[in-house]
Structures are given as C-alpha cells and as structure tokens.
Amino acid sequence: MQLCETSEVTPYRLILHKFVNSSKWALFGLGGSNFSDVVVTWLNQDQIGHFSDRYLLPNKQLLLDSETNWIPLDAFYKDEFFVFKFKRFIKVSCKSNSNEDLNIEPGTIQLVFATGNNLVPDVIDNLNRVEITLLNEKDAPFSCPIIAPKQELNSTPTDIYTNTFELIPGVYKLFWNYTDKDLIAEIHCKTNGWVGFGLSPNGGMDKSDVIIGWISNGQVNFTDRHIVQKQVLIDQKQDWILLGSSEKNGINIFKFKRNINLCDEEDLKIDAGSPNVIFAYGENDPQPGMDITYHGTKRGTVKINLISSTEEIVSTPEPDTEIIDFNIKNLILPKVETTYYCKGFQIPKNLTQKRHVYKYEFILPDINFKNMHHALLYECVPGYFGETFEDGDCYTNGEKAQFCQAISIGWAVGGQTIFLYPKDTAYPIGGDTDYSYIVLELHYDNPEMELGYVDKVTLRYYMTKNLRKNELGVLTVGTASTPFGIVIPPKAEQQSIKSYCFNDCLNKKLSTQSLTIISSLPHTHLTGRAVSTKIIRNGKDIGYLFRNKYYDFNYQNTYLLNPTVQITSDDELITECIYSTKDRTKFTYGGMGTRQEMCFQFLAYYPRRNDFKGCISFPAYEDVRSLLLELNKTENIDLSSLNTNDQPEYFQDFSNAFSTLKNQESENVRQLFTTFYNATRVRFACGEFEKKIFNQTKLINQYIEEDQCKETVTSKITVETFAKKIANFFVSVYNFLRKFF
User: Fold this and answer.
1) What is the rounded distance in angstroms from the CA atom of residue 228 to the CA atom of residue 65?
2) What is the rounded CA–CA span in Å between residue 120 and residue 126?
3) Residue 334: C-alpha distances to residues 45, 396, 454 (Å)
4) Which site from 9, 309, 518, 631 is most exposed, i.e. has the minimal number of CB atoms within 10 Å?
C-alpha cells in the first residue's frame, strides 16, 4: 500500500490531503494509548461515496462517533489513486468534550491507516502505524477560536400559543394563534427601545402593513402604520388592537390582535402562504417630535405561514408510541450542480401488525444544510421488496423509476420539519399496508459545484397500534417535469402553465366514491410565483381546492386545509403554475435541476386508494412541434434535430431546437408562448399513459372569489348615507321651522 500526505496549518485547523491506492475503503487517523481517532471513506466511479468520523477501541472494534469533527473538503480519483481532502480542529476540545476524538499535538504523533476491498468490517485487523510530525513546535501553542456566547431570550409568553417562531435567535420571538377570522399574536424583543412587526407584499419595507410599539416612563405607545418608501406613516384607522404590553429586564412584550382580512387599503390580508413577515427594532425609544424611519441593520424579513401551524408543534404523544428512523448519513456526493440521491429501505419485518404514523419529523444535517433542497419519500409497488435496489443516483436507477414513484411524505427548503396529522387521520405502515419497500430521495443543490457532503438526514416516524379512523394516501397533480412539458421564455413576467386531471380519470378511479383532501404541498423551483388547483364540477368552476398566491421557492410548506375539501367522480382538476423569468436570458425547461422547473401539488387525502397515486399532464408533442414551426416563420431556428416521427422518444429534440432560437428575449416569442399555452391540446397520465389527445377544458363559468370586504364597504356606505339623510332631514326641519319663528 502507498500513503502520501500534504498539509496546511492555521492556528485552529489542520487541512490534510491523503492519496491512497485504489481500494474499496480507506481508514486514516490518529493513534492514541486508549483509542484511535479515525475517519473511514470510499468513493465509487459515480463520485458518490462515504465519509464517517469514527473511533477504534483497543479490541480493534470500529465505532461511529456521536459528533462529526472531521469534515471532507474534496474526493476524487487521480490515476490509480483515490484522493481525499479534509479538515478538523487541531484541538477537538474547542468544539466538544468528546472522548471519541484526540487533539493534534506539536511534535511526533502516531498515524494509523488501513484499506480494504470488501465492506468495512466492524473489527479492523490490518491496522498500520507510522510516526510523523504534522505540527512544528514553533507553530505552538494552538488555541481555541473565540466563540461568541449564544444569546438567549429569557421571557415567558402571557398566554398559551400553538405557534412560535424565533425571528432573531436570542433577541426577537413571535408567538401566535389564529382562527378563520382573527390573528392573536405576541412579540418579545430584547431591547429598551421601540419594536416593529408587520406584513410585506414582497419582503421589502415599502407598502408594508406594520405596528410600532414602545414603552416610555410607563406610557405605552402602540400604533397601526404603513410604510411608503422609508416613511412609517400612521394609519387613519387603527385595526391592530393592543391587548397587553410590558417592559421588564430589557425585554419589550406586546400582545395584539387583528382580523385576517381588514378590508382596509392601508392593511394587508393574511392569506394562504402569507405575505412576508417583516420585523425591526431600535435600541432607544423615539425622541419627542421624532419618528421611526429607516431601520438600519436591526431588521429582517422571513416567510411564515401565519394561518397554519409551524415547526414547534406541541402534541401529546400516543401512550403506545413507537419510533422508527430512516437514515441517510456520512454521504459524499459528486461535484455537480444537482444530485438526486436515493436510498432504499425495507419496512421492518417485525411490523407484522399495522401501525399508524400520526406524526413525522425530518431531522436535517448540521453540515451543508444550505445545500438541502428537498427530501421526498416514495412508496414502491405492492410485491416489490428491493432485493436488487442499489442506493445512488435516483435517475440512473431503473428500479426506482419502474417500481417506486408514489410520493407519500416530503420536506422542501423553508418548510416545517415536523408535521402532525389531524387527530382522525394517519399514514399507514406495516401489516397489510400495500407497500413493503420505500425510497428516501435527497435533492442536493450545489451551485458552487464543491464536494457534496451530508452528515445525517433522518426521517422519523411516530407510530401507534391504536389505528385512527381515516388512512391517508397522497395524490400528485401537475405537469410533467420534462423539456417539453415546461418551456418558459426569458423576460416573462407572468407565464401561466396549466395541467389537467380530466374527468375521464377521476370518474374511472373514484366511481361513486369521493376523496377528502386534508393538505397540500405546492412545489415549483426558482421561477415559480404562484400555484393553484381548481375544481371543475360537471363543467362548472366551483373554486380553488388550494391556492398559494405568494409562493416562494425558499419557503415551501405543507398546508392543512381547514375546512377539508371534497373531490368526486363528477370533477376534474386544473393545476396552474405562474412563473417569472424576468432575470433570465435563456429558455427555462422542465427538469430535475433547481434552475429547471416543476409544477406540482401533493395532495394528502382519505380514504387511501392503492390505485390512485398521480394524475399528470403535458402539452401534446404534435402541438409543440407546431409551435416550433410557427416560431421559425419569424425567428431563426435550427430544426435539423427535429425528427418527423411523432413519438415520445424525440421530446429532447424539441428542447435542442428551442435552444437554437437566437432572439429568445423578444416580445414576439413571449406572445407566441402565451397563445400556445392557452390553446395547446394535452395528453395525461392517470396511473398509465393515455394515448388520446384532449382539448383544454372550456369552462361554463369563471369562479369569482367572494369579496369579503363588499359587505363591510356596503354597510359603511349605507351607514354614511343614512347619517347624511338624517342630517339633511334635520336641516330641512330647521329651515322649515325658521319660517315661523
């Protein structure tokens, strides 16, 4: 075996390069008198591999560390060598008091190493040792970096709240409850000055709806305001109502309520998806005669779904709760922009009796969390046990594509990591449930194309044998994520793309049965701005199943529907995604990458059906071809890649042809695409591919949302009119009586 080493030293960290001859795995680390502190790593030809922090006991037993202190930086093959680069603290005690790791001391130390061509054993018999100097005495002493103490906000809410969110860790916290009419909230902020909180239509301060509060010499100042540019103006009508306040130990607390919809031009409606929450504070109270203006750096904005529960879910565990974890850990991923990694799991054979999952939790990685885009769980078809399933790239895995396509549970960037099902519903596992194998998919977004590393991702189930009334399934509706299913021209402000789950499908699948939808998870990528699904019943538009007017890629959430929504065999579903590509100069295509696009709604429903997992549509490729020919009349397109045979395998040729369009940003191109999407015929898949071409549904009517403010405005006008009539009456009486007196 050959072993080479180079290193870089800072006062706090050591960075090492190791070159080892090609083997199935390699072990390297520091030798000690009581144990050895090591890492184990390997890499396959797809550049997917493993890197784990471990320790080796004197009995040669190899164990996983409870905390990862060795961090991989690079891994690749070079000639016959496997190269890996990593870093770690010189003094591990800087980060933890673990007995699983050794400090690196100046002078001579002992290195240990081993390799193998089979799976990593639990006992290492072929350990090699060598003495080496990594750190010179002249570089000593090595000290711990200064770590600022974590701020804490030591305050207790004045009421019981089901939702809470830390806006600034240790400084600013929000608590709230909501009904279908009101929001009741409480803000706690560590300051002796003023506090601001509110809603923004776009994440900025301009046009925001806010409250400002401060307490000066025992006098409470609390006002409903709106922001015009950088001016914080007091509303004519005060709609945010103060319920309580205090200032104690440097913490300001304000409790208030407001209607969900205030029907006031100076206030924003709280809607599904919610506008952006904005917040700010000052260190001092405003001086007399002065007012609140620009907030400097003590401010922020965040997406919070105010009318749905957030991550800090308080629930009483079922008395017989069992917990099961599905883990992906110590994973090296290739230096590419987008990776979909899949790991398969067989449902534990000891679950011979069916359980109901009443809560699930995604425990996300500490390292490289920013690269996590989503995690999805797929059910595999009945009778598939994954004997030949290979973990790795999802979309080169034929078995995943063939057998495991039914999405059941998911988390996406910005969404809550804990989800509690409504009390009469649950997700089934074990026993006679219709799946025996599941696949957990990670989408790792890597725009810098550095080495990917996931220390640990866990999907945790909270289960009970006490079965609930309604068993849940998930129905996926939307558009095929392919380069012909979605094509969006650049510079489009609002490009609408619709997909159809036609009545042919719902009638065939449901017959006389109806489905109750309890939640929706809308999903697009970066250019998505809004997602909605409408219900068309007997040809009539009866309204939205779910609509998110404020969709934000960085805040994707599962929304519980209250009330729940019924779909029947008389229905069809139209899902619409609206995209903005104003900042792009080239076409955006459907696909798996973050910079490509998708359009889905994942609908949780009951009663669970084994034969109804998805209903997906896409433009008829005959019409896509016609669009290219139409574009070629006014634009210069290379159509040489276009095959005359109208078969699905030639879809990729369409994107090749679109990409040759030189003037992709022209208004003419955008208009042609708008016309195309309004008129194109579609095909769809209802469990299986439908060869028939369907026309887009022509609606008998257009559903118009009820104007909740109309009655208020009308009442206001009526009252004002009545008052004017009374006033005019008394004026008339007064003028009449003057004639006699």
Assistant:
1) 54
2) 12
3) 10, 14, 12
4) 9
Please, is 617 exposed, middle or buried when counting C-beta atoms within 10 Å of its C-beta (0-12, 13-18, 19+)?
buried
For residues 320 and 445, the answer to whether their CB atoms sit within 8 Å is no
What are the residues facing 280 on neighbouring strands?
A: 196, 299
Angstrom distance (rounded) from CA 469 to CA 271: 30
Of 2.40.50.100, 3.40.50.300, 2.40.128.120, 2.60.120.310, the CATH number of 322-471 is 2.60.120.310
Contact 202, 552 (CB under 8 A): no
Backbone angles phi, psi at 173, to 5 degrees: -135, 145
Whether CATH 2.30.30.140 fits 474-685: no
The CATH number that domain 3-139 falls under is 2.60.40.1210
pLDDT for 56? 93
CA end-to-end distance (rounded Å), the chain: 122
Mean pLDDT of successive 10-residue segments in the chain (741 residues)? Answer: 48 55 80 92 88 93 90 85 84 71 86 86 88 74 70 91 89 92 95 92 81 93 88 89 95 95 82 78 80 66 73 65 96 92 95 96 90 91 91 84 86 83 94 95 92 94 96 95 92 96 94 92 92 95 92 80 93 97 95 89 94 92 89 83 58 78 92 95 84 87 75 47 46 42 41
Residues labelled catalytic: 340, 523
Residue of 372, 441, 445 whose CA lies nearest to 409: 441
Alpha helices, H only, 413-543: 503-510
Please state which architecture CATH assigns to domain 163-303: Sandwich (2.60)
**Which among 614, 620, 534 is positioned nearest to 573, based on CA atoms?**
534
Do the beta carbons of residue 278 and residue 199 sit within 8 Å?
yes
How far from the centroid of its chain's Cα atoms is residue 385's Cα? Answer: 30
The domain limits of the chain are: 3-139, 163-303, 322-471, 474-685
Structure token pair of residue 302: 């965040």
CB-neighbour burial class of residue 296 (10 A; exposed 0-12, middle 13-18, buried 19+): exposed
Helix intervals (H) in 378-502: 398-403
Query: How far is Cα 499 from Cα 544, in angstroms, rounded to an integer?
Result: 14
322-471 and 474-685 have identical folds: yes
Task: Report CA torsion sign: 287, 293, 299, 302.
Answer: positive
Output the CA–CA distances (angstroms, integers) from residue 550 to 203, 454, 556, in the order listed: 11, 31, 11
Hey, what are 179's tokens?
């009904």
pLDDT value for 21: 58
